[in-house]
Amino acid sequence: MKVSLYKSISIILLVLLVTGCQTQQQAAEPEVIKPEDVKFYTNAPGDYVVKGNVTATSKPKMTVQERQDYFIQETSRQAANMGANGVLVINYTGKGPSETVEVYRDGRYFPVPAHTKTVKARAIYVRRKN
Length: 130
Hints:
Layout: H1 2-20, E1 39-41, E2 48-57, H2 64-81, E3 86-93, E4 100-105, E5 108-113, E6 118-126
Parallel strand pairs: 1-3
Antiparallel strand pairs: 2-6, 3-6, 4-5
């Protein structure tokens, strides 16, 4: 009788062990975001999650337009690599006057420094409304 009970318990434990170790269904692959799909914000959008910080520092002899293009390209690339679909611009620093120019992208205008050397921003993931 004891042998039968031990066998039964052993079989039950073995079944539990085998079924407990089955491969779990993996979470869906994260969305791949391309740098050109990243949108820029100067004001925080409604529902978003911060993925990290991004920065871009221009070269000293860049023109204003080259600097703007570089900031857009570099912060977009960094944000996309973090899985972010947005960049929330927060700070400009560097030498020179604090002049800014308006740049139009993706249906929005945002200020970009004319003489500053570094832009600091947050890489964000803006949740889509269903």
